[in-house]
Design goal:
The chain is an alpha+beta fold. It is 32% helix and 25% strand. The chain has nine helices and 19 strands. The strands form five sheets. Strands 1-2-6-3-7-17 form a six-stranded mixed sheet, with helices on both faces. Strands 11-13-9-15-14 form a five-stranded antiparallel sheet. Strands 4-5-19-18 form a four-stranded antiparallel sheet, covered by helices on one side. A hairpin with an 8-residue loop joins strand 1 (49-53) and strand 2. The radius of gyration is 23 Å and the shape is elongated. The two termini are 17 Å apart.
Length: 379
């Protein structure tokens, strides 16, 4: 067990409930900041050195907390990072996803992705500070507001904290079988806008140029880029276009999600998708965007970090398998800097971004203990 006393799963669940019941959609910076205020107050009272970066572009603030640790500023820290925002709109808690506990499962919007894991990080650092637990290195905790939309405003802070760090821990949700993550695909996002020519669909059909038809042709080309054997996937959604059935649609649009396992494939597919821009016969196709999360590749240093975590998990009574995951996280940014990064250290459960989102709440204490022990022991 870690030297820091963390409490039982029942105790952790009680406080986690207050986090889940504080709805924090990414699009409401004030709501995210209210939860951040609570975290800041507790960490300040415990003696953490705090820096709060003001939000911008419609997103909430980012909070950094540094523990004293040995060696002060001269020794590379261990970084642990979690996000407070969720994909769920206000009112979800009171309608389709009320807080509830049913035997081994605890339900609520954002509980699995990733309030339980972010609470692990916060609670571990707070208790290390409160109890003055000796750690081998200083710890930097980051709590961020915008991961669910690609971390556009917090990426710089994450990368700045990670540069020169000994290791980065990301308590995103555990995978199937409780697996942590040692590699992730890179993520690209693109926006496609098509302009055509409007006309009466009956009387002047030949004068029109359908933006919807042109977009459909582009979508089929993007779909054909999927290569499951190579680890490449594309997805087009949402799609918009047209106004009425009797009007040739003058405009249409869509968004594109791209996942790739390597930087080289990311560069290749990014160029291919951007290359779909063209103008011909009254149709103009404009493609913008690019790779927004670099691939996170497994390295020997990451495997060594995983082996450490697996040994701690065994002491806390559970197996810790590892997996490579298709979804991106803030770990993509830190791993791409060459910093050993271990991800998926959050709670077990299922249903990220889905109505049945839940955690297996009895795993809160042992999973949090492993994260806390890593923070104490990484040398």
């Amino acid at each position: 067990m870690p030297r820091t006393e963390l409490g039982s799963s029942d105790r952790l669940l009680d406080e986690l409930r207050s986090w889940v019941e504080a709805e924090t959609p990414t699009t409401d910076p004030a709501a995210v900041n209210r939860l951040l205020d609570r975290c800041q107050a507790d960490l300040a009272a415990a003696g953490g050195a705090l820096q709060r970066l003001p939000g911008r572009d419609g997103y909430g603030d980012t909070l950094l907390c540094r523990t004293p640790g040995p060696g002060g500023q001269d020794i590379a820290p261990v970084v642990v990072a979690g996000h407070l925002d969720t994909v769920w709109d206000h009112g979800t808690l009171g309608s389709s996803m009320p807080w509830r506990v049913e035997e081994a499962k605890a339900f609520g919007p954002g509980i699995y992705d990733m309030k339980a894991g972010s609470f692990f990080a916060f609670h571990s650092v707070r208790e290390i500070l409160r109890q003055k637990t000796a750690t081998k290195r200083p710890i930097i905790l980051l709590l961020t507001p915008d991961e669910e939309v690609g971390s556009p405003t917090s990426r710089a802070a994450i990368e700045a904290a990670a540069k020169g760090a000994r290791a980065v821990l990301i308590p995103e949700p555990a995978g199937q079988g409780g697996a942590c993550v040692t590699a992730r695909k890179g993520v690209g996002r693109f926006d496609i806008q098509v302009r055509g020519v409007s006309a009466h669909a009956g009387g002047n059909w030949s004068e029109g140029r359908s933006a919807v038809v042109a977009l459909a042709q582009v979508i089929l080309k993007i779909h054909a880029m999927t290569d499951l054997a190579a680890g490449i996937t594309t997805n087009v959604a949402p799609i918009k276009g047209g106004t009425r059935p009797n009007v040739i649609p003058p405009e249409a649009s869509c968004e594109v999600d791209l996942r790739v396992p390597t930087i080289a494939l990311g560069e290749q597919l990014e160029a291919a998708i951007l290359g779909l821009s063209h103008e011909q016969d009254g149709i103009k196709v404009s493609v913008t965007g690019g790779m927004n999360r670099p691939p996170f590749a497994e390295t020997p240093e990451i495997v060594a970090l995983y082996d450490h975590a697996r040994g701690l998990a065994a002491k806390h009574g559970y197996e810790l398998p590892k997996q490579h995951r298709g979804g991106g996280s803030d770990g993509n940014f830190t791993a791409a800097l060459g910093v050993p990064t271990l991800d998926g250290l959050g709670c077990t459960g299922a249903g990220a971004h889905a109505p049945h989102e839940h955690i297996l709440w009895r795993d809160l204490a042992p999973r949090c203990a492993t994260l806390c022990a890593l923070l104490e022991e990484i040398g």
